[in-house]
Amino acid sequence: MNIVARILKLIVTAFVLAVMYSMPLAAQTAELDQLFEDLAAADEQNWQSIEQNIWSEWSKSGSPSMDLLLDRGRRAMQEGDLPTAIDHFTALTDHAPNFAEGWNARATAYFQAGLFGPSIEDIRRVLVLNPRHFGALSGLAVILTDIGYPKDALEIYQEVLAIHPHRPNLKEAIERLKTEIGGSDI
After folding, report:
1. Which of 35, 82, 127, 182 has the fewest Cβ atoms within 10 angstroms?
2. Do 160 and 137 meet the contact criterion of CB atoms below 8 Å apart?
3. Largest interatomic CA distance in the chain
């Protein structure tokens, strides 16, 4: 293994450990606590509405102008205008640094633009603010898989499974990674 690969592995490992042991700083309301309990106990018929309610709660910044930046960034991303989306999300994170969903949205835009480093950094910030963010965790697992860290990705996917057992394609991703790494214990 060359020196760059070793350094990257150390960085990824340190990042994964930091994320897994970070304490929640925000996004922890009684309503969200109840929604997460409901999500864990949900059946195949009602998990989607509970997930949507969680996303709705996460999307509330507490400021109409910040909500507008989030909406504009999401619209730009849907239209495929990633530079504009990133600009809107950057303005949002600059003005509302404790709003986890702003960081998550920008992480998604960076990922779609193929900018894995900035995406990982924004995911880190999301997870410091909101450790239960199954979307950010899933995104991190996708990136880790793409850059060649299937064992780390599997660990993250298993964290997602504990939070959101109905997450689409999650069990398939876990089984695929277990097969890829030979079913070895992590």
Report:
1. 182
2. yes
3. 50
- Say what percent of the chain tops pLDDT 70: 83
In 3D space, the residue among 181, 157, 180, 159 whose CA is nearest the CA of residue 169 turns out to be: 157
Q: Does the pLDDT of residue 130 top 90, yes or no?
A: yes
Please give the structure tokens belonging to residue 17: 């450990």
Q: Are 133 and 127 a contacting pair, CB within 8 Å?
A: yes
Set out the domains of the chain in order of their start, with CATH numbers: 62-115 (1.25.40.10), 132-186 (1.25.40)
- Cβ burial, residue 144 (10 Å; 0-12/13-18/19+): buried
| Neighbour tally for 145: CB within 10 Å | 19
Residue 83 host element (H or E): helix 82-95
Let me know: does 76 contact 85? Beta carbons within 8 Å.
yes
For the chain, report the end-to-end CA distance as a whole number of angstroms.
20
Interval 11-57: pLDDT, tens? 665 555 454 444 343 445 889 999 999 999 998 889 999 999 999 99
Coil/strand/helix, residue 23: coil
Type of residue at 73: G
CA pair distance 87, 20, nearest whole angstrom: 29
- 168-171 CB contacts, 8 Å cutoff, 24+ apart: 170/138
User: What does R_g of the chain's alpha carbons equal in angstroms?
Assistant: 17
